[in-house]
Amino acid sequence: MKHRILLILILFTTLNSCKKFLTEHPSGFLTTSGYYTTPDQIRAAVNGTYAGLNNLFSSNIGVAESNIYPLEYITGYSVRPRMLSVGDEGHFLLLDNITNQNSFLEPFWTATFYPLENCNSVIANLTPSTVISGDTKKVWLGEVYFLRAWYYFQVVKLFGDVPLKTTPTTDLSDIRLGKSPQQKIYDQIVSDLQTAENAGLPWTDASGKVTLGAVKALLAKVYLTMAQYPLQKGSAWLQKAYDKSLELINSRQYWLFPAYDDLRNPNKQNTGEHIFMIQHNANNLPNIMHFSLMPFPEVPVSVINNQGGALGPRMEFHQSFDNGDVRRQERQFFYTHMKNATDTSQTITLPQPYIYKYWDSLAEQTKRSGANFGLIRYADILLVCAEAKCLLDGGSTQDPAAMDAWFAVHHRAFPTTPKPASLTFDEVYKERFWELCFEFQNWYDMIRTRKAFDVKNNKIVDLVGFQAPNHIRAFKEKDLLLPIPYVELLRDPNLQ
Q: pTM for the whole thing?
């Protein structure tokens, strides 16, 4: 007891004497007054705004876990071959337990608002800067305006009404904003993209920076979304989507690769079909896709044979591809057989189809993948063009430009099939499911159209009321927006 009393007295004396030393008088946030003083600093700041693109594509603790996979699980067309320790429902696989306390919601939120703060800081400091000027300054600002639009486009589609903030945070009073209507968010996205469109960006860039092609492509996708749900702005915006996609098509700066293998060719990154990509480096910023999509259990088809099992197609979805579709053929979009990595004289038959889109042959030598990840590719924009025109013309079209756009994508998959006389929305929409499968695009398509692909019956149906193959129940209206994470509601009660 004496020892305890002595300890308490010592602690009391120590704390009391340190009280003045520990008392804080916050005077504000860290400022950028010592930065943005040289062109190199400014370029580094601009480069930093790209970092958020990979936030969702990074690895989590656990085998083959990443924040991005729930965006495919929620569609109901995929499986996770390797079971999760926290249960499948945590990742939206079963369309269950998607409450605001689900921990997998928070990354979708922070992957937007942390990068947005960087974008706002660069715009606020670069705009008045005299360190650089003229065309260089406009181009660099154009990159950041595009990226701010990109981040906002991702979050508004997932959460709906969200905070709109276009200035950097400099004061504690500036962190509780509440929600802004989706219309206001979309208006800002369009404004930012139009600013980027007029910034003098080059059509293409082999280093992977934002280009005029990426700006026009994203504008076309934004217009198509605004024309549909939730804003339902209709024909005028469908026309904008059609016109903007045609601007990119008619530029002839991009093209479809003749073979699907070209999509995996490291020498063709940032060119041709690849309009905008996340830039990876095997040593400093590796791509997780190759190894995390490997077969599981530990089937020895890779130099790393126990890291996979993250994502695979439901058999019903795989079988929805026509037998004559090149994309279904072995080692195009999927594979079902692979050489034994420890004994190449043996071929292993896998228990189900696995995704081949992200196979990286070089990674099998180095044990790390440096392949870039495509965020927008030309096939997507061709199908945007075709879909917008089909809807403009009442559900089907004979428009030559729209027909050519859709047929370019379809013809690569079916080289001997002649061009039809007309084209329907359903045909274009199915093509999007097949062509862009497991590229984290399908859920965005489903919530903007409110349509789903009934793969068992080969038809397009209403999303609400449709039970996807891997789900335990049908979609409800409440499923079409993710709930704002509970931790964010605690931080900002105005988000309630």
A: 0.91
Which pLDDT tens digit goes with each residue over 302-323?
A: 998 888 999 999 999 999 999 9
Question: For residue 347, what are the β-bridge partners?
Answer: 339
**Final residue of a structural domain among 345, 371, 397:** 371
Whether the Cβ atoms of residue 214 and residue 275 lie closer than 8 Å to each other: yes
Last residue of a domain, one of 340, 371, 402: 371
* Residue 192 sits in the same domain as residue 328: no
Residue spans of alpha helices (H) in 32-130: 39-48, 70-73, 106-126
Asked if 193 and 222 count as a contact pair (C-beta separation under 8 A), the reply is yes
- Print the domain residue range for 44: 39-201+481-495
Name the domain count of the chain: 2
Residues 194 and 75 in one domain: yes
With a CB cutoff of 8 Å and minimum separation 6, the contacts of 113 are 151, 155, 163
Residue pair 275/213 in contact (Cβ under 8 Å)? The answer is: yes
The CA distance from 266 to 358, in Å, is: 11
Question: Tens of pLDDT along 26-64?
Answer: 444 445 666 899 999 999 999 999 999 999 998 877 777
